[in-house]
Amino acid sequence: MNERKATVSRNTLETQITVSVNLDGTGKSQFETGIPFLDHMMDQIARHGMIDLDINAVGDLHIDDHHTVEDIGITLGQAFAEAVGDKKGIARYGHAYVPLDEALSRVVIDFSGRPGLEYHVPYTRASVGGFDVDLFSEFFHGFVNHAKATLHIDNLRGVNTHHQAETVFKAFGRALRMALTVDERMAGIMPSTKGCL
């Protein structure tokens, strides 16, 4: 099996971002985004997805976090698309339910070649640790549009906003792990899903 690794850089007037991924990693991560709560959530993707993930971002945080969060989602999606390649032999579909105390979230993903997001997370507060939780939808929109994946995210219950967010990102990581699993026996007979409609 070829190494499923990629490094992608994105430079705009607002942000300069580099993302490196190893889809067959051990969950190691390193983040320099200037947004601590976002780093905490990215760490959940790495740990629960068993994905090595490095993100270095410089953005216009003096304005707000919006451009940086959205552009990290875009760059991460581009890195995933490059690392996955033609997707031959992958499970393609992944899903996970994750609880954390009172909170429970479900994430379902399909590396279909068709970008789409259904995002239903009724946060009970507008921010956690100074982070505007509305920006998570921007992150996931950026990801699906560039990873070319269909993604359904539902927080089924929760009172603590930190718990709501954390269950979403843990479930996202676990759904990614399932969807990206390669079965060597299937690689020769399962068609590529690249550009699948």
Provide an overview of this structure.
It is a single chain. The chain is an alpha+beta fold and 197 residues long. Helix content is 35%, strand content 30%. The chain is built from 5 helices and 10 strands. It has helices spanning 36-49, 66-84, 135-147, 161-179, 184-187; strands at 5-11, 15-22, 29-32, 52-59, 93-100, 103-110, 116-120, 127-128, 131-132, 150-157. The protein has a 4-stranded mixed beta sheet, covered by helices on one side. A 4-stranded mixed beta sheet has the order 5-6-10-7. The longest helix has 19 residues, at 66-84. It starts with a strand and ends in a 10-residue tail after the last helix.
Can I get a quick summary?
This protein has helices at about 35-50, 65-85, 135-145, 160-180, 185, and strands at about 5-10, 15-20, 30, 50-60, 95-100, 105-110, 115-120, 125-130, 130, 150-155. With about 200 residues, the chain is an alpha+beta fold.
